[in-house]
Amino acid sequence: MSEESPFDVDSIRSQFPALDRAEDGVPVAYLDGPGGTQSPRQVIAAISQTLERGVSNQGGGFRASVDADRIVEEARSAMADFFNCSAAEVAFGQNMTSLTFALSRALSSAWGPGDAIVLTSLDHDANFTPWVLAARDNGVEVRIAEFDVASGELDPDAIGELLDDRVRLVAVCAAANSIGTVVDVATITEMAHAVGALVFVDAVHIGPHRAIDVQATGCDFLAASSYKFFGPHTGILYGRLDRLAETNAYKVRPAPSDPPGKWETGTQSFESLAGVTAAVDYLAGLGGDGKGSRRSQLVEGFAAVGGYEKTLADRFLDGAGRIDELKVYGSTSEAVDRVATFAIAMEGEAIAALTSRMISAGLYVWSGHYYAVNVMDRLGRTGSGGLIRVGFVHYNTATEVDRVLDVLAG
Ligand SMILES: Cc1ncc(COP(=O)(O)O)c(C=O)c1O
């Protein structure tokens, strides 16, 4: 057990082979979780065993083909537990961006001049540009809800003010991949539904940090990416069954006409889907005594993850507050609900220089805009190299937080 919390991070870390990586004898700290997380052994094994055993395409009737059917079915059922929905409401794709392009194109074919959509400046560009292009192609007005630059928060009223009966869709993230803001999606969904608008949620960044519950939030669509929650590179779309059924998907003729198959273009990566199931099972395994449904174990597992990550976030904020030249963008209050993703800059040191100083110390951090181009614009960082992103997930440690603070303190 670690000293700071009952969360057994040493045992967690022992399940992730990549975390043993060292460069020139210096252990590497993977602080790039927001860009993609590492995978535990059971995910790696599920992927390699699928390929080693042999897997054929679906629909062949022979055993290796039936295996593919089973893998897809198991992954749907795993993701249904992950989202708290039914398996028929889960569709797979290459990544979140591709799924969002496909959905935006499909939904917007029913929109036209006089209609409007609401997007936010807090979102990753994958939940912005696909909608802007779909709106442009159909003569639809785009309204942008602004986050509060000082606090990093997105007030639901900023969206509420833009809503009227012309709005067909609100697209919003559950958490910001840049400054770690957690968004009140349930309230936004209620407001949007009150004017008849659909709600699409980008859950990519919340994925590794919190239990997602589409029933509780009531959203119509939601997309996630398994490589951000310890699985392989596969995107996942949730859609309320009636919405998936009533929306015209762009698909080839022999593909299924019903959801979820009509939303899945071409052949899926079966090895990745086996990995997706293993990632969900890994997260469920963090939930207590292994009793109860996989969904209830996931909820428990994420409660433990959230509690532990908060200790890392608080430790980071506490230490960061003592470094005069350091500026943390977004919320710096330990009382505010956020995920442990921090965008930072140091007065008097260029982003590129600080990034290389951190990377030389074995700290895998990201810098630039990480596709959150509107966020960098609103924070006034576009022309100055963006910001450095330090992201903590549940396999990171208090020691790694301290290593970051030591390098920053210089
Ligand atoms: C918040 C957020 N949304 C969307 C994406 C795009 O996801 P994908 O790479 O699966 O297309 C990312 C990737 O960084 C992200 O962080």
Task: Give me some keywords for this one.
410 residues; Aspartate Aminotransferase, domain 1; binds pyridoxal-5'-phosphate; disordered N terminus; 4-stranded antiparallel sheet; Aspartate Aminotransferase, domain 2; 38% helix; 2 domains
Spatial extent as radius of gyration: 21 Å
CATH superfamily of the largest domain: Type I PLP-dependent aspartate aminotransferase-like (Major domain)
Characterize the biggest β-sheet.
7 strands, mixed
* SS class: alpha/beta
SSE string: HEEEHHEHEHEHEHEHEEHHHEEHEEHEH
Number of helices: 14
What spatial form do the alpha-carbon principal axes imply? globular
CATH fold field value of the largest domain: Aspartate Aminotransferase, domain 2
Beta-strand content = 15-25%
For this structure, what is the CATH class of the largest domain?
A: Alpha Beta
Oligomerization status of the protein chains: single chain
Task: Name the strands of the widest sheet in spatial order.
Answer: 4-10-9-8-7-5-6
